[in-house]
Amino acid sequence: MSKEKNAAEQLKEELLIERKNGGFLLEDSEIAEADAFCEEYKRFLDAAKTEREAASYAIRLAEQNGFVPFERGKRYQAGDKVYYNNRGKAVILAVYGTEPLENGVMLAAAHIDSPRLDLKPRPLYEDNGLALFKTHYYGGIKKYQWTAIPLALHGVICKKDGEKVTVTIGEAEDDPVFCVNDLLPHLATDQMKRTLNEGIKGEELNILIGSRPFKQDEPSEAVKLNIMKLLHEKYGITEYDFLSAELEAVPAYHAKDLGFDRSMIGAYGHDDRVCAYPALMAAINCKTPKKTAVTILTDKEETGSDGNTGLNSSYLKYFIADMAEPFGVAGRTVLSHTKCLSADVNAAFDPTFPEVMERNNCAYLNYGVVITKYTGARGKSGTSDASAEFASEIRSLLDSKKVLWQHGELGKVDQGGGGTVAAYIANLNVDVIDLGVPVLSMHAPFEVVSKIDVYMAYRAFYEFFSA
Ligand code: MN
Ligand code: MN
Q: Of 10, 84, 204, 352, which sits with the fewest C-beta atoms within 10 Å of its C-beta?
């Protein structure tokens, strides 16, 4: 039923931005591809709830697909696939291209850490017959959201003799889980007067872990003692071993299809596994590219990218220099010609909270992968503002490969803001733009994304590497 377009309609099509839900624009076969891609993505989410687990998952998958550990000093050939493991918490994957490294590399950078509750160095205590863990939250959370939900414990404990114990408890069907308790509404008169920010305070995020005492002799702290006895039996640890542990409490539930139409995924940790997984798969599926394709899955983004596994450290710079050195090329030469997609999420428009968004400049669920020219707060502070030239290059690439994309800013100008690793990479003299997946309830224990947008992120990284 196509009717002739009148002059105004025609002109509109030629001159104006028209944004549309991908559900209207994509072929059924493409939507089916997106759904199939997301089945694997959900498995990744369940298997990789922490940066360490995401790093091992990436390495395992890379090895199965011909990647080998990077050796310094080696002159790699086009088509060679290598990976670099940074302390088990961050990974760089590279597929060598046919062009020399001095032409720069194509870089995709996502992060694999997510907001969560970390255990304090001395977490275990008993109070009035209950055993609890003290926590110190990691990243920007709304603290009240972390109460009264099932939590699992993931991480490592390094004993004094160097032995490393891996802990994952709360994931298997018959595993116990843990939780942070909240006050009953009946007695919350005072609590309800607190601001939302203070509704649950940092020192109230205590995780309930046991309630039965160790029977003999009725010593004090018998419940704590009983928990320590169980942990000693299971992991061979004493209370001192918590001092050299990284234990992270994360939601215990699995990723789920969301909606009657199953068009979305609800899960913990989409930010930023929803970009990390597509970037990883683009690296895995990348055929010998022209320019060397480098994927970096980094840690510590949620706390500001500081530390030796975060992108404020020099590990990316050193890796590029190590790649370049056998060819007699300086690392800075490679970096100065490098192009980067900083792969991180952006906020999706939420009809329940429209007031924080400026509708012409925000991202919508199902409208495709979102290009964010700059992030930042208070007048673009703390951001890399991608150049018009580079923005043009990326949108032209996506259009030519029919990758569904949209543009978006992180909310209204004075509403708040945020940042990504884009700024740190741009500071290395790299051309960078943010490109990622729009998310609802970002940083909540249950975040929501659209399957179409996840798949379009994969297609964007894949085409970027193949360009
Ligand atoms: Mn992020
Ligand atoms: Mn985040």
A: 352
